[in-house]
């Protein structure tokens, strides 16, 4: 093994040891129904028993009758709870649900591919496509008509660039999917981060067109940045679709496909993906819809014997989350609609109509009036689901994105200071990283200015152990443990407890400079 190879292997291992691997879930302490329903039952039972206590002076017979009555009531309650549970189970959708984020460099074909998926799964009819074809032509963007399915606002259609994360749903035989179509342009990376933080699976779209793969893959190109962000944000599986295979400069060339795969593979490894287990490559044409719902015809592409996109999506496995864990839902958006409606992805636990919960960090006690999954009202939603929850007890203006809807018995901690292990990726102008460094912290739905207040230890990339000597500054590529402060209270968790709520990125002037995980919470800073 030559030195360079060894270096890469070392760095790879280092990244793994940083445990930025989302499969690294930690066991959570199981808790029944957020502790809420049970607590109520307990109170009810307790009250009944108190009644019994009062009767003690009465005749034995009366006491006996009362006790029988109490027992009956408790039994009834238990039975109705069981019925409820059975009803919930029945209502739970039989298909599993996956959130898929489309990422990749600007113009790679994310919206086109997303739009094509909706067309192929029968959600958009020919008439609508014809309408979009005309609209795209009028805007001199003929080839963008498929992207118009996902790019719904005027600015996006005129410029041919996604700005807001598009959201849509489709189903295969086995799975219900929520598609999140992220923008590729570098100005909108914060929107991409919010999209990726809601997803378990990423479709990394790469343009095979001559010159386009190269621009996306260059330093500063979003192919690289999106991959690093996706890994940090918890996207555990990647389907790398080599798109625009129909383009005249590509023409389904195996050579071009192999070139892209061989260049991407070491980079994906460096970013922390286990390429054998977590990554799958496949060729497609999003515009024409080839190798998407059905496998590409041999007359078009003789050398591809692998799956089509729908098959590959259907076959992705993601780590199971605990439906009985303490409830955690970072709020990504909110609006008023017969109460306050909050939107987000359930990261742990379950939510059901009638639950009492708390919004952190402002500790607002709320009642769940209704739960919506996709467009449907449901009685209960579990981890991994993207939901809208209607609440009473809190005003819409008192909620900010990044707040977390939590169970009352184990609310999420809120802090203004925490300890973290960081990997410095690329500092602006190769600056040095010292105490006093300011950046924007992105952690689940939180976006906050932060300051590094102290570097605690540098980690030796070779031995993976903390170095003894005091560290005052570090440079690109370094691993360092430090103390981070924010001005407002934020709700986060230790990475080892809840990976999704404990991993973050630091960005400066629109560039991702570091990724990291929370290793300690300064609870006295709350
Ligand atoms: P942003 O949202 O700006 O990041 O771009 P995007 O990745 O969503 O790309 P979009 O779908 O808007 O497509 C950009 C251009 O690439 C459009 O002109 C599409 O017609 C073209 N395109 C997308 N997929 C294909 C494909 O499979 N083949 C060919 N030939 N062109 C494609
Ligand atoms: Mg787009």
What does this structure look like?
- This protein is α+β, with helices and mostly antiparallel strands.
- It has helices at 3-17, 36-54, 60-91, 110-120, 126-138, 154-159, 189-196, 212-217, 222-233, 254-270, 275-278, 309-315, and strands spanning 96-103, 166-171, 175-181, 201-207, 237-243, 279-283, 328-336, 340-345, 351-352, 356-360, 364-373, 376-378, 380-381, 386-392, 404-406, 414-424, 433-434, 438-443, 446-459, 473-474, 479-491, 503-508, 511-521.
- A 6-stranded mixed β-sheet has the order 2-3-1-4-5-6, with helices on both faces. The protein has a 6-stranded antiparallel β-barrel with strand order 7-8-14-11-10-15. It has a 6-stranded antiparallel beta barrel with strand order 16-21-19-18-22-23.
- It is globular, with a radius of gyration of 26 Å.
- The protein binds guanosine-5'-triphosphate and magnesium ion.
- Magnesium ion (MG) is lined by residues 110-111, 147, 151, 162, 181.
- Magnesium ion (MG) binds at residues 110-111, 147, 151, 162, 181.
């Amino acid at each position: 093994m030559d030195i360079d190879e060894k270096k890469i292997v070392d760095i790879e291992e280092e990244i793994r040891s940083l445990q930025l691997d989302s499969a690294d879930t930690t066991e959570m302490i199981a808790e029944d129904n957020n502790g809420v329903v049970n607590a109520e039952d307990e109170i009810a039972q307790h009250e009944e028993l108190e009644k019994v206590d009062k009767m003690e002076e009465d005749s034995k017979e009366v006491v006996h009758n009362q006790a029988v009555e109490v027992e009956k009531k408790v039994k009834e309650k238990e039975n109705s709870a069981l019925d409820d549970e059975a009803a919930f189970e029945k209502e739970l959708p039989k298909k599993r649900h996956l959130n898929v984020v489309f990422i990749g460099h600007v113009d790679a074909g994310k919206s086109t591919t997303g739009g094509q998926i909706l067309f192929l799964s029968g959600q958009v009819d020919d008439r609508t496509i014809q309408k979009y074809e005309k609209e795209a032509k009028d805007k001199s963007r003929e080839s963008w008509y498929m992207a118009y399915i996902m790019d719904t606002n005027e600015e996006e259609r005129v410029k041919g660039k996604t700005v807001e994360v598009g959201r849509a749903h489709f189903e295969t035989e086995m799975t219900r999917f929520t598609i999140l179509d992220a923008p590729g342009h570098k100005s909108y990376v914060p929107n991409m981060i919010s999209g990726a933080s809601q997803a378990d699976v990423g479709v990394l779209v790469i343009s095979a067109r001559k010159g386009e793969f190269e621009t996306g893959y260059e330093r500063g190109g979003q192919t690289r940045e999106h991959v690093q962000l996706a890994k940090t944000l918890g996207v555990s599986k990647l389907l790398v679709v080599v798109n625009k295979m129909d383009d005249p400069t590509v023409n389904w060339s195996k050579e071009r496909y192999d070139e892209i795969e061989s260049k991407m593979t070491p980079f994906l490894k460096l970013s922390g993906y286990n390429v054998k287990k977590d990554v799958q490559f496949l060729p497609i044409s999003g515009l024409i819809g080839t190798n998407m719902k059905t496998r590409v015809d041999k007359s078009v592409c003789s050398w591809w014997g692998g799956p089509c996109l729908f098959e590959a999506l259907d076959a992705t496995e993601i780590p199971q989350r605990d439906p009985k864990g303490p409830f955690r839902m970072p709020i990504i958006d909110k609006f008023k609609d017969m109460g306050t409606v909050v939107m987000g992805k359930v990261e742990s636990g379950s939510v059901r109509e009638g639950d009492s919960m708390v919004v952190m960090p402002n500790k607002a006690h709320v009642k769940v009036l209704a739960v919506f999954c996709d467009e449907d009202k449901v009685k209960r939603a579990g981890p991994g689901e993207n939901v809208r929850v209607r609440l009473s007890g809190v005003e819409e203006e008192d909620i900010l994105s990044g707040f977390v809807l939590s169970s009352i018995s184990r609310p999420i901690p809120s802090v203004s200071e925490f300890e973290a292990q960081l990997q410095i990726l690329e500092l602006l102008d190769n600056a040095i990283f010292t105490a006093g460094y300011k950046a924007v912290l992105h952690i689940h739905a939180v976006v906050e200015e932060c300051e590094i207040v102290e570097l605690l230890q540098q980690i030796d990339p070779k031995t993976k152990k903390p170095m003894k000597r005091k560290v005052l500054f570090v440079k690109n590529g370094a691993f360092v443990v430090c103390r981070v402060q924010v001005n407002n209270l934020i709700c986060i968790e230790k990475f080892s407890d809840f990976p999704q709520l404990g991993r973050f990125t630091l960005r400066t002037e629109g560039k991702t400079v570091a990724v990291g995980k929370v290793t300690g919470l300064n609870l006295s800073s709350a």
